[in-house]
Amino acid sequence: AVDLGLFQSLGPVAGVRSQLLVNEPLVLVVSPRHPLAHRDHITPDELSRHAFVGPLRDSHYFHMIDQVLRRIGLHDYELAMELQDFAAVIEMARHGAGIACEMLCCVSNEIRSGLLVPLQLAAPAPTMQIRCANLSPKSEPVRKLIEMMRGTEPA
User: Fold this and answer.
1) Is the peptide bond before 154 cis (omega within 30 degrees of 0)?
2) Backbone phi, psi, residue 131, to 5°
3) β-pairing, 100-103 with 4-9?
4) pLDDT tens-digit map of 94-115
5) How far is it, in rounded angstroms, from Cα 79 to Cα 56?
6) Helix (H), strand (E), coil (C) string for the chain
7) For 47, 61, 112, 131, which has the most beta carbons within 10 A of its beta carbon?
8) Per-residue confidence (pLDDT) for residue 95, from 0 to 100
9) Considering the entire predicted model, what is its pTM?
10) Beta-carbon neighbour count of residue 7 at 10 Å?
11) Do 121 and 30 form a contact (C-beta atoms < 8 A)?
12) Closest to 150 measured CA to CA, from 130, 120, 128
């Protein structure tokens, strides 16, 4: 039996008992050589003039990212490359293939090392939820793991 599952979402999912662990910031990242890399207050209109790299169009993750981009005002954009996993998306953005929208926790090392540059958007940064679905009642090890992931584990 599965005691818990972690998943990304934009909010609660109907029919799935889950709890929010964290609202993780999403960032649009590019190669340091990208024309938008060192600009401030980038608008959706400016973004729409540049290609994106992202998940496969038929995937649930693509539809979540598409919703996020629409929420920041980007309704029409070119998806130049569709890739199976987030590591490949990050790698293609790093090599200059386009703009990628990723969770900050997934690209923080690349940003710190200068391999990727987070774009400075005019709009507030969007977020992605990391949620935990679990059977009830929670076992003690599952409860402790959830507390640790939320950062609320007693010292």
Assistant:
1) no
2) -120, 160
3) unpaired
4) 999 999 999 999 999 999 999 9
5) 10
6) CCCEEEEEECCCCCCCCEEEEEEEEEEEEECCCCCCCCCCCECHHHHCCCCEEEECCCCHHHHHHHHHHHHCCCCCCCEEEEECCHHHHHHHHHCCCCEEEEEHHHHHHHHHCCCCEECCECCCCCEEEEEEEECCCCCHHHHHHHHHHHCCCCC
7) 47
8) 96
9) 0.85
10) 13
11) no
12) 130
- For residues 37 and 128, is the Cβ–Cβ distance under 8 A? no
Q: State mean pLDDT over 119-136.
A: 86
Give residue for tokens 């949620």: 131
Structure-block tokens of residue 136: 């009830």
Tokens for 13, please give them. 């999912």
pLDDT tens-digit readout, 64-86: 999 999 999 999 999 999 999 98
Record the tokens describing residue 44, joined without a space: 């959706």
Determine how many CB atoms are found less than 10 A away from the CB of residue 98. Answer: 21
Average predicted confidence (pLDDT) for the chain: 89
